[in-house]
Amino acid sequence: MHALLTDRYELAMLGAYLREGIAERRGVFELSLRRLPPNRRFLLVAGVDRVVRYLRDLRFTDAEVDYLRAQPDLRDVMTDAMEGYLRAFRFRGDLDAIPEGALAFEAEPILRVTASLAEAQLLETFLLGVINTETRVASKAARLVLAAEGRPVFEFGARRVDPLTAPYAGRAAYIAGCAASSCEQAGLTFGVPVSGTIAHSYVLAHVDDGEEAAFLRFAESFPEGTTLLIDTYDARRGALRAARAGSAVRAVRIDSGDLLALGRDVRRILDAAGRPDIQIIASDDLDEQRIRSLLADGAPYDAFGVGTAITLTPDAPTLGAIYKLVEIEDRRDVAVPVGKRSPGKPSTAGAKQVYRRLDERGGFVEDTVRLADEAADPHPDPEALALLVPVMRSGKLVRDLPTPAEVTREARERAARSLRSLPEALRDLGEGPSLPSPVLISPALSAMVPRGD
Amino acid sequence: MHALLTDRYELAMLGAYLREGIAERRGVFELSLRRLPPNRRFLLVAGVDRVVRYLRDLRFTDAEVDYLRAQPDLRDVMTDAMEGYLRAFRFRGDLDAIPEGALAFEAEPILRVTASLAEAQLLETFLLGVINTETRVASKAARLVLAAEGRPVFEFGARRVDPLTAPYAGRAAYIAGCAASSCEQAGLTFGVPVSGTIAHSYVLAHVDDGEEAAFLRFAESFPEGTTLLIDTYDARRGALRAARAGSAVRAVRIDSGDLLALGRDVRRILDAAGRPDIQIIASDDLDEQRIRSLLADGAPYDAFGVGTAITLTPDAPTLGAIYKLVEIEDRRDVAVPVGKRSPGKPSTAGAKQVYRRLDERGGFVEDTVRLADEAADPHPDPEALALLVPVMRSGKLVRDLPTPAEVTREARERAARSLRSLPEALRDLGEGPSLPSPVLISPALSAMVPRGD
């Protein structure tokens, strides 16, 4: 399943490793960020569950192997041995990960894969794609949730991204604290609450009778409660019509115009019409800055709908995670630290662990990245929490996997605790002063000298 | 298949349309852009083939219908009638589209769906997601291809996006003129040429013998020709080692540092080592501006590898296409134009066609958007090309679908012609003066007064 959602070079290297007889050397790869993207003071981890299920299920189908065999550029490595290797492929390595919903920062391995060189190499593209996408979305959605200060944020950015990724984006947004996603498949696959109301087309389709009739009809179809979009023609007139459409109307949504002025007017109109109970939802290309400024100005919004900002994160479209070999067995089966030295893009050698220090009330204080080998780099604080936890050992899950919906719920609960644990400075959404990094590097790790060259 | 890759509100509206008895009214929806994204002077259409196959295959599975039936918020519309409607669902409408690989601009319908209101509404989210993604990627990749001035551009941005979208991104980039994609699945599904060489990890894995031995071994595995990544430790030393690794080495890649200075030095080193035949490929977060500036400075690169810039298009992360109802039957079965009037976000009423004028050498001159009803808005120039072509009629394909690989090849050929047809001003990659729009609106279309409200 999906074995070819990978880059050609992973397969080219795998073929070379097999030919050279080094495919089974044990290696450690870590997935991390060199630095946080602009406008981010923390990451909220998401995507690990998908990685785990991928590793559990990864196989090459006959069609996939046949395709590879037919590739001229792979001719010299696609031997019978490699074909046999691919047909028998199972992930048999170890996975350690920072759990979904936990905070992470630059320089911290989010995933650590310890496996044969060939296996660990092959995974690179898929693991990066998943974490780069889901952690990016969750980290951004968390900012929206913080900006909304307790008001619900509805994610409805499916239409801005490839439809196949929309359920995962909806899940990541829900983990981060969004109240719901618009994407039905996020509901079916992950148990994410799904919500949505009407589009302008619904109002336009009632060309015979106009907006007021459209509102009445829609409210009749949803007598248990619904939200009406009121700006197809004129939001103020729409508000009055919504107020008259009966008690099923629980909220109105405004999707254009001067959201501050309109929000105030619509609130007045609804109140004057005897409907102070109707809530107002704002949308229209909102991001955390705009939500914060609306709330700071006292705009009377009860909830926010956010699309593009969550699923495409235009202020930081790429997370930029990397997946690097940090340790490899040499020919005497001794694990040695390795790292590249490319200018501006060095990698830090050695398998790592991250220790988190919290204050007495559970507030985040700081992280220290250390060598994973505790004998070589013991942590002085026995209370510090080791963030990377064992997920798979020798290809087997350390715990039975709960359902996707259960895993998602757990991650959401962890994320809520994570956001509560953030100190004021790290919650800052962008205009605050730049901060020293909350990540320390242990002296032993700093002193690592990679072998090689 | 994938019927729930849609937003909740599409299903809520569908349910309401059915209850109200207006689901079968014929409507026309158009997918277009209000304006081009920043830094774009044209779009290159991609994604239509996927839309077509989706419309051909769209069905609701039992699990999907059961899930919808269990949703509390849909309780009052998920009647037996709606359940029956979903179980029997087939797309039976018409699709007109600008073909993949053709140029498009703002205000032009890329897709036009003419179908029952219920059907056409349901499609909104998926169609937007696909075109917003694939046309965004193809339009950006075309800029990279133009910047490279005939040198190959290799797309390798799979790791930056959700793995499930990577094959589609690889396809869109290939349509736009990229030489190959790194994504294996793009090869298997769409016949896109796939390429790739080694990562830094390959060199690091040869910790016993170092980079030179790694290069020799890799060249032995790929005697027909390969590319070596030379900046793991030091690109200049790497170049010399690559030059010594035998005739299988056809190219080297530099992925970090001062690409101008390094490129020149590496060229000199290779030439001095008697290997003027070895080509040099640049990568490292390249975009069209950086490629153009490298080439303007005479950097001796023969090809470029581009990841993030193509798949995530950070300079314009969202295409912002919209899908709007422009015409609907009223209760007397008369089709009437409709459009919303939301401030700053109005939609243009009336079903449309786009006519393209070319000069005698096939160069693009201008487009005119007119009413699709030729009797109401005849085009004065019989030579002008109608861009939207019939793809489906009453749910049936107008022509048998070639294989995905054949469709992709056709689109790539059309894209090459499209890019050749661009006048100098539209090829400009960003620093030129702002231009008048190449899109005219016919007087009859401008004069349309939408009904409603």
Compute the separation of the termini of chain A in Å.
38 Å
The strand line-up of the biggest sheet of chain A is 13-12-1-5-3-17-18
Number of helices, where a helix is a run of at least 4 consecutive DSSP H or I residues of chain A: 17
Task: Kindly estimate the percentage of residues of chain A that lie in beta strands according to DSSP.
Answer: 15-25%
CATH topology of the largest domain in chain A, anyone? nicotinate phosphoribosyltransferase
CATH class of the largest domain in chain A: Alpha Beta
Amount of helix of chain A: 25-40%
Secondary-structure-derived class of chain A: alpha/beta
Rg from Cα of chain A = 25 Å
Number of domains of chain A: 2
CATH superfamily of the largest domain in chain A: nicotinate phosphoribosyltransferase
What does this structure look like?
Chain A is an alpha/beta fold and 453 residues long. Chain A has 2 domains: 8-137 and 316-446, Alpha-Beta Barrel (nicotinate phosphoribosyltransferase), CATH 3.20.140; 148-311, Alpha-Beta Barrel (TIM Barrel). The first copy, chain A, is 36% helix and 19% strand. The first copy, chain A, is built from 17 helices and 19 strands. Chain A has helices at 8-20, 48-57, 62-69, 80-87, 117-122, 124-147, 166-175, 184-190, 200-205, 211-221, 235-243, 259-272, 288-296, 308-311, 404-421, 424-427, 443-446; strands at residues 26-33, 43-44, 94-97, 103-104, 111-116, 153-155, 180-181, 226-229, 249-254, 279-282, 303-306, 321-329, 335-337, 352-358, 364-371, 385-386, 389-393, 396-397, 439-441. In chain A, the strands form 4 sheets. In chain A, strands 13-12-1-5-3-17-18 form a 7-stranded antiparallel β-sheet. In chain A, strands 7-6-11-10-9-8 form a 6-stranded parallel β-sheet. In chain A, a hairpin with a 5-residue loop joins strand 14 and strand 15. The longest helix of chain A is centred in the first third of the chain and has 24 residues, at 124-147. Chain A is globular, with a radius of gyration of 25 Å. The two termini of chain A are 38 Å apart. The interface between A and B is large, with 118 and 118 residues.
